[in-house]
Amino acid sequence: MKATYINRQGDVDVLTYGDMPEPSVGSSDVLIRVRATALNHLDIFARAGRNGVVLDRFPHILGCDLAGEVDRVGAEVDGFVSGDRVLVDYSIRCGRCEACVSGRDQLCIDSRSIGISVNGGYAQYVSVPWTNVHAIPERLSFEEAASIPLVYKTAWHCLVTRCNLKPGEDVLVMAAGSGVGSAAICLAKLLGARVITTAGTDEKLAKARDLGADETINYIDTPLYSSRVRELTGGKGVDLIFDSIGASVWEQNFKCLKLGGRLVNCGVTGGHRTALRIGQMFARGLTLMGASGGNRADFDSVMKLVWRGQIRGIISHTFPLEAAAEAHMTMEGRKVFGKLVLRIP
Ligand SMILES: [Zn+2]
Predict the structure, then answer these.
(1) Fewer beta carbons under 10 A from the terminal one: N or C of the chain?
(2) How confident is the chain (345 residues) per 10-residue block, as mean pLDDT?
(3) Distance from residue 302's CA to the centre of ligand 1 (Å)
(4) In Å, what is the CA distance from 94 to each residue of 29, 71, 105, 204, 255?
(5) Cα 102 to averaged position of ligand 1 atoms, centre (Å)
(6) Which domains occur in the chain, in start order?
(7) How far is the CA of 92 from the centre of ligand 1 (A)?
(8) pTM value?
């Protein structure tokens, strides 16, 4: 089969387009003929060996988010037949540890990820456990389907499961142009919140408003954006901050929080080490949360919205599979709004 694979971690030139053997199909696996796979920052970290992402076997095929058609299924698989249109939840959980049995499988002690621990979607075929496979409606293109799983699962987990976002609350979504930022804007609006969001260009802010964002701030023109957030909230600050950037925005974000406000972080694209004003945290009654993804219940909730057409995948650009290196460079250059998708031949 055709695939883009890597033989070691490194710069974009390690991405190699060529032939790889078709994966084997275990008794509880589904072999998927991949039609589209979407990039995440996790792909960059895994390719480059950044932020502690270690790959332990090569050649390796990246790609956490993917959609396609069922080719064939293992003997124990129930509910899928050849030709079914599907997308994949990238998280493989043990199902047995304390976290898994208590419904908090995002904390599974033996968690693995498709595209990281096992081969992923930068290929014509991928074999995945059938419990990770979800049917998609006919009207959804494979490109759009592939752009949904990781970012919406994360956004749902952060906004709903962890932060219990309520209608009417003010939420600040950092990095409107990122995949997870654009998904969070759509979900927060669906949940009835007022959305304030940031981006580095007016073009991205216009697109954020198209998704429903109520207020937008250009952080290049307004680096001390906390003053603007305070203005927009009558001096109070926001109820909730959804952040995937980390250190570079921490200081300003802290100033944006309302008394009793909560901040949930799900990424460190802007650095992972900062100082914390502990006195302010307790005196202002703040809640600071980390979220490393979502759980199966979060994913099921997202899939309901997919079937009802209440959320959409936000695609910035598509590339052919052999241009994966160009897609990685585009993501690192941040000239994107939403997801970058690879079309599989
Ligand atoms: Zn587990």
Answers:
(1) C
(2) 98 98 97 98 95 93 98 96 98 97 96 97 98 97 98 98 98 96 97 97 97 97 96 98 96 97 95 94 97 94 97 96 98 92 98
(3) 21
(4) 15, 25, 8, 40, 40
(5) 10
(6) 2-148+313-343 (3.90.180.10), 152-290 (3.40.50.720)
(7) 9
(8) 0.96
